[in-house]
Write a structure and sequence with these properties.
Length: about 240
Amino acid sequence: MTTKYLTIHNDIVHQIETGELQRNSLLPSENELKDRYNTSRETIRKALNLLAQNGYIQKVRGKGSIVIKSEKFNFPVSGLVSFKELADKMGQKPVTIVHGLDLWKPDEYIRQQLNLSVKDTVWKISRIREIGGERIILDKDYLSTKHVPEITGDICASSIYQYLEQDLKLPISFAKKEIVVEEPTDEDRALLDLDGFYNIVVIKSYVYLEDASLFQYTESRHRPDKFRFVDFARRNPV
């Protein structure tokens, strides 16, 4: 037997999928929905929370719930894929904006992530990823100059991995990844389109060469409504 809040959720999903509720339109208020479905406010909130979790609406303070349903992109968590390769597979035409490229003496945090000494330097690269006119990813890359002595803005705007593998002949092998959900920083809000969003999904990647040398640390900061983070797992009984 379907619970009441799931029935309400499914009915609103149907209205969104059929176009009865248009993207960027406001849902009726909680009180209006309570009266319409003849139920409690708590039940309405459960339905709205599930709609938000499934990417159909976004709750915005002072406005209510806005329909945001759009196609989510599958992001393979376990793979080691460049943004350009991922975008090509999705059939999208993204725009990469190189916001920063600096030869930098890393702070203590980045030194710890890359196991560097105080004398070491890194390339500090900041790139904004735009799809469909919306700035939805901020990539912050730190590349050890021990392995990457030179890099240019044009390379960063195209494909860093293509340059590393084809020009520098670096055998990129594997990565360790960590996924966390955080509150957006001031930098996130300044560089990404985050109006109405109060969380951001951060994928932290530690990338290694075939000889197990750690040469790259990346924080890829994603707006939560545009991506579905997927993986494939095979059971191996212990």
